[in-house]
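Is FE2/S2 (inorganic) cluster placement plausible here? Inputs below.
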Amino acid sequence: MEHFANNPPGGKKEQLALTSCNLFDSSADRVTVHFINRDGERLTATAKEGESLLEVVFNQNLGIDGFGACEGTLACSTCHLIFEEDVFQKLDAITDEELDMLDLAYGLTDTSRLGCQVCVKKAMDGLTVQVPMEVADMRRELEVGKQSK
Ligand code: FES
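Reply from A.M.:
I modeled the complex. Tokens:
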């Protein structure tokens, strides 16, 4: 897998991959999260409070094809997830950088967020998120655009 932590395409400012959330390493802070994969399969994970949803997918090898291609550097939008309305309303505020990348995701909804930017909280226990049917890796789109010029 390629690493873009120090030089992400698209000129986005440097970010430390996979560390956007504050980690609390306590077994008392386990949170159950369900992902509905593209084929409809329900993948259930036990997350730690403070992990990003990208870290949950990676750490537990959930097998979501193409998910998190830029490893949390806000350069791909492959970590696009769709939330239930009530949960979406309670998520931390979205940054301009996330909004810019989210705009490029396929299948965008009113309750879409990027999984690498959403931190697991205890109140999310039992959360179910939908993996969109299509995935857009903006790093590949940019490469294709360069080659066709
Ligand atoms: S993992 Fe690439 S934007 Fe989230």
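Short version: The first strand starts at residue 30 and ends at 36.
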